[in-house]
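G.,

No rush on this.
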Amino acid sequence: MNVLVVLAHPNPASFNHAIAGTMADAARRAGHEATLRDLYAERFDPLLTLAELERDAVLPPAIEAGCREAENADVIAIVHPNWWSAPPAILRGWTDRCLRAGRAYRFEPDGKGGGRPVGLVKARAAVVVNTANTPQAVEDSVYGDPLEVHWTKVVFGLCGLGGKVVRRNFTPVIASTPGQRAAWLDEAAELMQAALG
């Protein structure tokens, strides 16, 4: 199987990098192909251009490659910190540019005057791992866990993965011990193994 791991954190020494590397390694150890895209290291340009809005637009080579990676992945894993209850802007740009309408999803009439999404991504599962410093209970009770909605219902829901998305929030990282981080890395590997199942 093909596994795509997309990482969005600017610090190469970050815990996010350790998580993404662990997930890619878990896929490789299980005998699968794994591509790790470090958006900051690659200097990914998050700006969707006017020329790209057309459904049949000729895309820049890097964006075309990103679209194909997402289309051909059997498992998609996303790793990023929680910044302002949202992914970093560079990852939002990757979503805009590489999970394109007409390639990752499309809309068709719903018979009620609106449109309904049809997912086009072939992936069998998606795994999203976030890091944060807000305790999960606060994230749920005060903010409504917006990243859960963003990834499971909005992004991967439109792409057709619906109930095949697993999201985990490792928090609070700022107060975590080396032992806790090691346990989280073990969990990240287990999440990948389960997705490959």
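When you get to it, here's the other one too:
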Amino acid sequence: MNNYTQILREHNLKATPQRLEIAQALDLNGHMSIENLYDVMLKKFSSISLATIYKNIHLMLESTFIQEVKLPNHKSVYELSKNSHSHILCVQCNQIFDIDLNLNSIVADASENTGFLIEKSDLVLSGRCKNCL
């Protein structure tokens, strides 16, 4: 288990019990929606509000402690920030998997073709996982 108290402080965030629980839930479960996080948090903090979850997620996103994964035709999910990576979404079971891909040539081509200075790239591939085939 990681020392999330120290990591939160390194991101200029107070290590509140709610933030520590969010970090632990994301570490344990991977990609989670706000609703999934809320369900997990209710088990430990019976009076926690959905607004509290949103507020903490917003602050944790701003500080780059966590990152948002925007999925086509789905609600966003959240994960602990880590090295740059892409995602694969199973369209049948809705599981999300991390995948390390080198996007440098795609980014370079896109930049060359459009004249954009590309600052961020997110890639989500969709298909069916081995279990669903």
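The chain has a mean pLDDT of 94. The two ends are 34 Å apart (CA to CA).

Enjoy the weekend,
O.
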